[in-house]
């Protein structure tokens, strides 16, 4: 059974950096798309960044130039490096995976697997 196990996150002051990790366990076929989503209290979950198996990356406009999605294939781990953090980045962050190359950020529909979530809090 495939599992996504997250680590990282925490609290940081505005302008600081954090890195989230998402380890993939138990897969037979590698996901074609992996992404990061976030959900703040009272708000809908939104896509933040996605990485397609061909190396294509996607970012929501609000994080472009500040966040970087990457993966270490040897460690079967997905990362989200978050720099220049802002208070509005505070949310619960989730990694997700799907087995198609269609890798949207506009919806979480179709993502088959989810991590347990990790909290990111940015203070001003």
Q: In percent, how helical is the residue content?
A: under 10%
Mean pLDDT: 94
Low-pLDDT stretches are: none
Largest sheet: 7 strands, mixed
Helix segment count? 0
SS class: mainly beta
Task: Give me the Rg, rounded.
Answer: 13 Å
SSE ordering: EEEEEEEEEEE
Number of strands: 11
Q: Into which percentage range does the β-strand content fall?
A: over 45%
Tell me the distance between the termini.
41 Å
What does the oligomeric state look like here?
Answer: single chain
Shape: globular
Q: What can you see in these coordinates?
A:
The chain is 0% helix and 51% strand. It is mostly beta strands and 124 residues long. Strands 2, 4, 5, 6, 9, 10 and 11 form a 7-stranded mixed sheet that branches. A 4-stranded antiparallel sheet has the order 1-3-8-7, with no helix packed on it. A hairpin with a 4-residue loop joins strand 7 (67-72) and strand 8. The radius of gyration is 13 Å and the shape is globular. The N and C termini lie far apart (41 Å). The mean pLDDT is 94.
Secondary structure layout:
Layout: E1 3-8, E2 10-13, E3 18-25, E4 33-39, E5 46-52, E6 57-59, E7 67-72, E8 77-82, E9 91-98, E10 113-114, E11 118-123
Parallel strand pairs: 2-11
Antiparallel strand pairs: 1-3, 3-8, 4-5, 4-9, 5-6, 7-8, 9-10, 9-11
Structure summarized in a few sentences:
Helix content is 0%, strand content 51%. With 124 residues, it is mainly beta.
């Amino acid at each position: 059974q495939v599992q996504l196990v997250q680590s990282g996150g925490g609290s940081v002051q505005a302008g600081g950096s954090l890195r989230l990790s998402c380890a993939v366990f138990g897969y037979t076929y590698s996901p074609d798309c992996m992404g990061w989503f976030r959900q703040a209290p009272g708000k809908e979950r939104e896509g933040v960044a996605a990485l397609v198996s061909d190396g294509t990356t996607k970012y929501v406009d609000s994080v472009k130039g500040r966040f970087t999605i990457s993966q270490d294939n040897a460690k079967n781990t997905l990362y989200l490096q978050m720099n220049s953090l802002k208070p509005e980045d505070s949310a619960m962050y989730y990694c997700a995976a799907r087995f198609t190359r269609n890798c949207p950020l506009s919806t979480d529909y179709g993502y088959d697997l989810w991590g347990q979530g990790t909290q990111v809090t940015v203070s001003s």
